UniProtKB/TrEMBL annotation, chains A, B:
Pfam families in the record: HxlR
Organism: Mycoplana rhizolycopersici
Protein name (Swiss-Prot/TrEMBL): Helix-turn-helix transcriptional regulator
Entries under InterPro entries matching the protein: HTH_HxlR, WH-like_DNA-bd_sf, WH_DNA-bd_sf
Domain HTH hxlR-type: 9-109
Keywords: DNA-binding, Transcription, Transcription regulation
Amino acid sequence: MKDEYRSGCPINLTLEILGDRWSLIVIRDMMFGNRRHFRELLTHSEERIASNILADRLKRLMEKGLITKADDPSHKQKALYSLTEMAIGLVPLFAHMGAWGRRHLPVSEELSIRAELLEYGGPAMWAAFMEELRAIHMGGPKPDRSVFSELQAAYEAVVAGKKAAVPA
Amino acid sequence: MKDEYRSGCPINLTLEILGDRWSLIVIRDMMFGNRRHFRELLTHSEERIASNILADRLKRLMEKGLITKADDPSHKQKALYSLTEMAIGLVPLFAHMGAWGRRHLPVSEELSIRAELLEYGGPAMWAAFMEELRAIHMGGPKPDRSVFSELQAAYEAVVAGKKAAVPA
DNA sequence: TTCAACCGATTTCAAAATGCAATCAGATGA
DNA sequence: TCATCTGATTGCATTTTGAAATCGGTTGAA
């Protein structure tokens, strides 16, 4: 648990915490897939993370303050993982990563519809989504708009093979 | 040189290309430090990249289409590395990474002044910087505004211990 | 009460990535 | 001639990652 950094550059510090192949995948699934338990994160992801890597990343992300862990009252062994404000602050970053990936890499249609909506929705949509995430993960006030539902509906519409009617 | 990806998710694809501790450091130094040669990238960075890692990343980034390599006419052994449109498209991502790092991590004052300016400058400033990068790296038309100079001047002002007067 | 299924991990071991130091051959310039 | 600089490469130790099996406790249905 060394707390020495290579430099005080904001880009470098961000990379030292998030610069690997799995950390942002875990946060992505918690954020956009609403997966809150170990098993959900382990089995419901396309990329097939190994259980030891998942356990390690959850621990690291907790140490760095991006997520918290709590007992799930419904099951004595279940742990409920939640995003902190620090992780919720990554929404714009995810939006830009998605936009860049969509523009330059061989994305699939189903898995990029969310990125497309987030890109066109812009900062207003990101802010609404962040408010919603605060409600879900931090007990904040429940907002009127559910960006999560919009994204989910669009995804399911594409999977069903229909043209998704983008909500106004 | 396998071209198989874990999934078609834009976030995942972006991570598979940029998700390590060094790739974005190299691009950052080319972009914000205007370092174009192997030696410059090797020695002028705070984070002290190893020469074999640098060689490997330059090769990888070329294969993925983020940078190009050309002979430097001034020296038969010198190679000149340039950013492509793909890498220049990362400017907004760097801006958000810098903003997030500045907010949540122990950044140093000198090394975060650029991130601060980029954050307050917003999309207009990012676009101007991208135009300038196209001029420098891709032979595009030279723009009137030099964001690079603004960032560099602000950095040097902080290093000199003065309060930087943020250009209007 | 039994028991299979599920819970969040941990263990083991092989493979790959990383880090460091030394080194390389060709080009340059004094 | 020769020290210096160029973009790398090599060898080797350490660290990280990945896959599969396993762990002890919990749950809910038979």
